[in-house]
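sorry for the late reply, my laptop died twice this morning and i had to redo everyting from scratch. anyway the thing you sent over, i finally got around to it. pasting the sequence first so we're on the same page, its 146 residues, then the predicted structure underneath. double check i copied it right bc i was rushing
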Amino acid sequence: MTRQELHDVSRKLKVLNHAQEIGNISKTCRYFGICRETFYKWKRAYTAGGESALVGSKPCPENHKLRVPRAIEEKIIYLRTNYHFGPDMIVWHLQRYHNIKISRNGCYKVFLRNKLNRLPENINVRTGTSLEPMRSGFQDTMYRLM
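ok and here's the structure:
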């Protein structure tokens, strides 16, 4: 068995043992982030063939290959917590100053995983530069020209 297969088997055995210890499959599945259907597939395979039967099944949904690397995730969290930047500003900042390309949605997923999708309530909302005086002056000039 490869290292990845050994890792998958040990994780599946952890799930099965945890369910047997606490006696509640729903809580176990919720705790490990798997659906009950997957749990029952693993259980049937384990009772039928033992540990070797767990090798051929799909790998565990634990570490996705498209997930943002931890180093970049830490930079995103730092920019969000210290400067209260939104996803667009963080994407721009990482591209310009660190030459790191990340999508806006990838940045937002990092916010969700770390419960940073909402800014604190005591932070004022940033507004753009006020263009009202300039707009009214511009409109007056336009009316005079007509």
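The chain is about 65% helix and 0% strand.
thats about all i looked at so far, will dig more tmrw
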